[in-house]
Amino acid sequence: MPFVNIRIVKEVIASDPEGKKAAIAAKVTEAIREATGLTDSDVWVVFEEVLARDWYLGPKNVETLRAG
């Protein structure tokens, strides 16, 4: 069974977290299903939401980078 762990900056999906996660999960599941022939129920997708201030690119966090 494929297990897909998606880490995403929480603020990216803040306007509609459930809707955006459902859309992402559907597309990821479809891609795996098409590539492997597995069924939708064989694909597990888990989301981990990380605050922008806790996600770093090198020495700076995403919150700081977005603020300019």
TrEMBL record:
The keyword Metal-binding does not apply. It comes from the Bacteria. Residues 2-63 form the 4-oxalocrotonate tautomerase-like domain. The lineage of its organism: Bacteria, Pseudomonadati, Pseudomonadota, Alphaproteobacteria, Hyphomicrobiales. Pfam families: Tautomerase. Keywords: Isomerase. This is 4-oxalocrotonate tautomerase family protein.
